[in-house]
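Protocol step 4 of 6: structure prediction from sequence.
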Amino acid sequence: MQRQITGFHLDDKNDWVAELSCCHGQHVRHNPPWTNREWVVTEKGREEKLGEWLNCVKCDSGQPADF
């Protein structure tokens, strides 16, 4: 299910987590060569992604909110 990004925070391992409008979190790592998300490593890049849509697999599977 598509949900909007409303914010970001770092988890306990210092990986970025997108906060979604459904109150679920989704990791958005820059981990080349497997995942190329250079935008996540800068504040400006993260700000530019606010309001973008991500598929929330937690919603798809009916999981409770993370926050």
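Step 5 (inspection) to follow. The two ends are 18 Å apart (CA to CA).
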